[in-house]
Amino acid sequence: MEPGNDTQISEFLLLGFSEEPELQPLIFGLFLSMYLITVCGNLLIILATIFNSHLHTPMYFFLSNLSFADICFTTTTVPKMLVNIQTQSKVITYAGCITQMNFFNVFVVLDDCLLTVMAYDRYVAICHPLHYTVIMNPWLCGMLVLASWIIGVPYSLLQTLMALRLSFCTHVEIPHFFCELYQMIHLACSDTFLNAMVTYFATVLLGIGPLTGILYSYSKIISSICAISSAQGKYKAFSTCASHLSVVSLFYFTVVGVYLSAGAAHSSHSSAAVSVMYTVVTPMLNPFIYSLRNKDIKRALKIFFQWKL
């Protein structure tokens, strides 16, 4: 954007999906439903993992952390949008926008890293089953989750500090339902070259890096499964990682779709509509994917509800 009335603004306008008044109740109801399903579904996964001793294993430890990240991930964006619809206001303060962007970046990177850690867990379980409990010991599991946080928090802090140096024109409108980093860089009046370079290298490191690790893990997993002689053994081995593979595919395909659409049409609402897939729909579907394909989770949830009753 060309420098114009260059100043430090106090608020942004989140344009959301539609300005049609008759659509607002429908959008509010839809997103409130998806948010409640996301929170309840992921919270049940966490509670089932905590209260069922049979799920005190590395795989479910990572899954409960992923569920926690998904709850926080969705909470950074959806409640503010719901409040704006209910109050018929599109305003978000500058401080609120920066805060939202900061936490959103933390949890999207945390999601990415945890999916990579879970791929490594499945690799060890299938390719080195006899050494699984030795390799995936509690200390290593804790360090892997801690490392995910250590990667996510400094990255987000760096992006936040870089965003604070930007200046914006007055009456800034964000064609999105939350303060997304790329939209803020695009709307800035000041020079954004350094921000763009940092974002580009971070995307390569934190996007392609984990994806490479996941693909490598699954290449080894597939090789090990193909070496199994019995069809039943192959099915059992594949079923242990099918849910994770489904979640990974959903996450990466939707993220790629968002940024391809954003590059094609910055000024439209298409990017906001597509981004719903990985910011809202994916965290909502994750508990269903893991519970519907996992007998241990279904059994733990059944025991949990019987205990509560």
UniProtKB/TrEMBL annotation:
Name the UniProt record assigns to this protein: Olfactory receptor 7A10
Coiled-coil stretches noted in the UniProt entry, renumbered to this chain: none
Upper taxonomic lineage: Eukaryota, Metazoa, Chordata, Craniata, Vertebrata
SUPFAM superfamilies: Family A G protein-coupled receptor-like
Residues annotated as domain G-protein coupled receptors family 1 profile: 41-290
GO cellular component: plasma membrane
Keyword presence, Transcription: no
Keywords assigned by UniProt, alphabetized: Cell membrane, G-protein coupled receptor, Membrane, Olfaction, Receptor, Sensory transduction, Transducer, Transmembrane, Transmembrane helix
Subcellular location: Cell membrane
InterPro entries xrefs: GPCR_Rhodpsn, GPCR_Rhodpsn_7TM, Olfact_rcpt
PANTHER family: OLFACTORY RECEPTOR (PTHR48001)
GO molecular function: G protein-coupled receptor activity; olfactory receptor activity
A Pfam short name: 7tm_4
Residue ranges of the TM segments: 26-51, 139-158, 193-216, 237-260, 272-292
Domain of life according to the entry: Eukaryota
Entry similarity comment: Belongs to the G-protein coupled receptor 1 family.
